[in-house]
Amino acid sequence: MPRRRHWGWGFEGEPVGEGAAELAAHLGFGSAELEQPAPLRVDPDRALHAHGASYLDVVRALRGDFPHLPDVVVRPDDEPGVLAALERADAENLTVTPYGGGTSVVGGVDPVSRHDGAMSLDLGRLDRVLEVDPVSRAARIQAGATGPRIEAQLAEHGMTLRFYPQSFERSTLGGWIATRAAGHFATGPTHIDDLVESVRAVTPRGEVWESRRLPASGAGPSPDRLLLGSEGTLAVITEAWVRVRPREVPRWSARVELDELSAGLELVREIVQSGMRPSNCRLVEAREAQLTLSADRTTLHLGFEGSSEPVEQARALCARYGDVLEGAGGAWRDAFLRAPYLRDTLVSMGVLTETFETAATWDRLPGLIEAVQAAVGWVGMVYCRITHAYPDGAAPYFTVVAPARRGDEEAQWAEIKRLASEAVLAGGGTITHHHAVGRDHRRWYDLQRPAPFAAALRAAKAAVDPDGRLNPGVLLD
Amino acid sequence: MPRRRHWGWGFEGEPVGEGAAELAAHLGFGSAELEQPAPLRVDPDRALHAHGASYLDVVRALRGDFPHLPDVVVRPDDEPGVLAALERADAENLTVTPYGGGTSVVGGVDPVSRHDGAMSLDLGRLDRVLEVDPVSRAARIQAGATGPRIEAQLAEHGMTLRFYPQSFERSTLGGWIATRAAGHFATGPTHIDDLVESVRAVTPRGEVWESRRLPASGAGPSPDRLLLGSEGTLAVITEAWVRVRPREVPRWSARVELDELSAGLELVREIVQSGMRPSNCRLVEAREAQLTLSADRTTLHLGFEGSSEPVEQARALCARYGDVLEGAGGAWRDAFLRAPYLRDTLVSMGVLTETFETAATWDRLPGLIEAVQAAVGWVGMVYCRITHAYPDGAAPYFTVVAPARRGDEEAQWAEIKRLASEAVLAGGGTITHHHAVGRDHRRWYDLQRPAPFAAALRAAKAAVDPDGRLNPGVLLD
């Protein structure tokens, strides 16, 4: 099995830096002379578990800087192994950070110690599909299974989970649930929340938190919804029943080219408010399309799956807004999955590249996008795309690309993060639609969260994790 | 304004007992000589707030028996009034039971006192639509607004919430949120959970619990989802932003007649698993259809709204299973809304009539239905219908009709409830899909709920309601 690189995305031996000269020319900044990774002076496995996959994580790891090296990395084989690890943490008084694919972009998996040491609890060996129910279309899957592992095993049953976050190659089911991840389905069940039938987790006290498999329920507040988004602070998720579906062939896809982002926003709103539920409905601003897709104009990537979607109606609607080029489905997806690799090149070139995302109701969305671009536009380029659309609003996703202040990246990044987050909250957005809170978003999450809910959540954590062993500083102190 | 009757459903002056002779003949039990309500010896308003609308509530109120008369009924005009009521409860050391339409069928609004007295906090005067956002299709509505009040006010904006629980005429938005109510939409957003954009509530300490208006978010566990289903135990809901839609004309409806319930289950499963989302998809067993719909066979009521639904495909699919009679949409709805009135007649006739409901995955559903009917079938007739369908399962709804043991109804009901609930849990169901937990389902809810979640919920309640003032005994002690 190939070994993951201790910095950035991907595996040892995969190339970094392809196209650097062209990128530098296109951007007008960044050096084609790539910064080389510092020699690794610590245990590679501990280095790998010292951080997630944010821009700063990549910069720091490239330089051999690991502020939160775990004292121990534990890789249980199964749930009893997880319980044993938690017992060990109790016996040795260790902080425990659950670790899935290590793809957090918000400082969610740094093994920060608040005890006598830090344990990174890597769930990667819990990677099996344990059971498939073809009648109800559901599967019981272990928390540490990555996207490719899940799909390969479900394919043997003719099924698919059909959940593709950008981190698909490395991130895990447990991580998706813990962070309320969103996949590339643009409408309908966008978040993993809607695909979860039941969750099984274990608390630091060794208690099992397992809900019933149910298609729906009205029995009290949902126990699953308290674990969804808990970011490893309440319990360690070990497995879940999730809703799967037969593998479907894409039915229709098109690229719609538009003159203005605002026209695209109107088109997307009309699509979802008319009751259509395209599987893909991704609106990419002209400047980002130029960078990643070799397209010139603002582009809506639209795709339908299944046999019951109103393709004719969609085609006619799109034609009222722009030029419809049918059957151009794959390009955006390639660019989407290539982005984390591209970032390693950009970082090596001395380019700051940061993404952040939110969601807001339609009435506030144009103003929010404008305000965010104004707040951080001065540092470099700020691209916007719409990744998910709902009848009452949508999720804009921003990419900042700027010349890095080498050696001072941390302060530069913090300034951008602050300005962007303030603009997002002031504009009526959420601090995150699917990147989670972690440590990087805490300040604004605390402002966004209703105070009595914060008190309730703190109390809930104290009840199940009285020693505050699980992922301290994330969501709560 | 007409005054509500202190027992049963409906208003003073509305007839009770129509068709009693025919019902008795059809059932083979029950008397056409109606039991007359006992003279009311307590304050009518306190009597009205002493109970909900369960079978036992109707029986007891008919006999003038009010085990939980509130000491005081408070009707605030607005949120400051709610806060003042909570302050008064604190000053006078009163237990507080939030009261919406008083339609709980699970003992959820009985003002049980655990302090020096009991306050019923009636939100009925908070009944306005405060704001409509036509761009995002959302509306801010006060918690005490009933179904008809909401629809009348939204109609002025050409909008509808389109949420029709059976209690529609009397139940309120706040009650729906507190109990995770389900409307008559059979697929898609069945529960109010999915229509809620944000919730505003106040705690006994006077703190405001308000989430942001968001189409979706991934920022920590959802604060709304902790209030959804909290049944008045955490905070008093005062208003919410909910997703509305333009008023749509039903597009196609049909009645499909089938020979067997099992064929109907297969048909419903195929419909939802194929991606269709009919607005109505209600499967009624032959014996219930005979009682309420004057139909002879097992009947699926199917309806589509909006312009993007695959009617042709649905028609062809249904024809493979049974006889399709198009355009027969209204009958089931009339029977549905008439049922609470019918129950008053049945109770007066000395007929026990109880309903309970659950949800289970498709693989377990036929076995669960069979087990429930076997467990309680000996007491009388047990009808089953399917009210809500999901890709991974469905919600069966049972109606028990039996000769009441007059004077001993409580014990008889408790026995039926116990047998049914045990069968539901053993069969893999939830103790409730949309009737809530209240006090009647507590025993089985406690068995169903994951133990660490129960601990977390208890702690959360203690944090926001340290004196245990809100609705004690419901969900938690």
CA-based gyration radius of chain A: 22 Å
Report the span from N to C terminus of chain A. Answer: 38 Å
Strand content of the residues of chain A, in percent?
15-25%
Oligomeric state of shown chains: homodimer
> Main interface pair?
A-B, 95 and 94 residues
Report the principal-axis shape of chain A. globular
User: Based on DSSP secondary structure assignment, what is the total number of beta strands of chain A?
Assistant: 18
Uncertain segments of chain A = none
| Structure annotation, total helices of chain A | 15
Q: What portion of residues of chain A is helical?
A: 25-40%
Round the mean pLDDT of chain A to the nearest integer and report it.
93
The helix/strand class of chain A is alpha+beta
Largest sheet: number of strands, sense, barrel closure of chain A:
8 strands, antiparallel
Give a verbal description of the structure.
The structure is a homodimer of 477-residue chains. With 477 residues, chain A is α+β, with helices and mostly antiparallel strands. Chain A contains 15 helices and 18 strands. The first copy, chain A, has helices at 20-27, 44-48, 55-62, 79-92, 147-155, 173-179, 223-227, 261-273, 286-292, 311-319, 330-348, 365-376, 409-426, 442-448, 451-464, and strands spanning 72-74, 95-99, 118-122, 129-133, 138-142, 159-160, 196-202, 208-210, 236-243, 245-246, 250-258, 280-284, 298-305, 323-326, 351-357, 360-361, 381-390, 393-403. In chain A, the strands form 4 sheets. In chain A, strands 11, 12, 13, 14, 15, 16, 17 and 18 form an 8-stranded antiparallel sheet that branches. A 5-stranded antiparallel sheet of chain A has the order 4-5-9-7-8. In chain A, helix 12 (365-376) packs antiparallel against helix 13. The mean pLDDT of chain A is 93.
